[in-house]
């Protein structure tokens, strides 16, 4: 295993394990920049890691198509990761009683946190809907 592969594997492990731990290590009394950075730094690290691994082997004569195709899947992976972090951010805010109704009060907790939670909720609803449709329609097309 070369050095770059080791760095990529360690950064993926840090994103998968370290980011949720990092979310729960930040106290509710922490400064607002620290609360937003606990979400933005892992996303930035994962974006750099996925971009490097995805774009490192594009064929020279078709770079534009290769780059756009692979960046589309990198962005899909980023949405999944934001959904993953949004779940942990929601749990963190529920744990510290920072989710309130009406939703106007939630704006005091930061745009980044609210954005992650909204993206996470939308992606979760979309995934559950697609899985339900697949479970209903798949037996119809398989036949007996």
Question: How would you sum up this structure, described in words?
Answer:
There is one protein chain. This protein has 144 residues and is mostly helical. It has one domain (3-142). It has helices at residues 3-25, 32-55, 63-95, 111-142.
Distinctive features:
4 helices; globular; 144 residues; mainly alpha
Offer a quick outline of the entry.
The chain has helices at residues 3-25, 32-55, 63-95, 111-142. It is 78% helix and 0% strand.
Which secondary structure elements does this structure contain, and how are they paired or packed?
Blueprint: H1 3-25, H2 32-55, H3 63-95, H4 111-142
Low-confidence runs: none
Radius of gyration: 19 Å
Overall strand count: 0
Return the structural class: mainly alpha
**Arithmetic mean pLDDT:** 81
What percent of residues adopt helix (DSSP H or I)?
over 70%
Terminal CA distance: 48 Å
Number of helices: 4
How big a fraction of the residues is strand? under 5%
**Largest β sheet strand count, sense and barrel closure:** none
- Topology as H/E string? HHHH
Tally of discrete structural domains: 1
Q: What is the approximate shape?
A: globular
């Amino acid at each position: 295993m070369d050095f770059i592969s080791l760095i990529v594997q360690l950064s993926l492990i840090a994103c998968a394990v370290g980011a949720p731990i990092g979310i729960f290590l930040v106290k509710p009394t922490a400064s607002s920049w620290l609360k937003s950075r606990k979400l933005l730094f892992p996303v930035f690290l994962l974006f750099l890691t996925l971009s490097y691994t995805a774009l490192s082997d594009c064929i020279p004569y078709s770079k534009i198509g290769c780059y756009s195709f692979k960046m589309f899947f990198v962005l899909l992976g980023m949405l999944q990761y934001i959904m993953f972090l949004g779940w942990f951010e929601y749990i963190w805010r529920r744990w510290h009683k920072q989710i309130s109704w009406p939703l106007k009060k939630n704006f005091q907790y930061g745009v980044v946190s609210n954005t992650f939670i909204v993206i996470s909720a939308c992606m979760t609803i979309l995934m559950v809907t697609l899985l339900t449709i697949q479970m209903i329609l798949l037996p119809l097309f398989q036949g007996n």
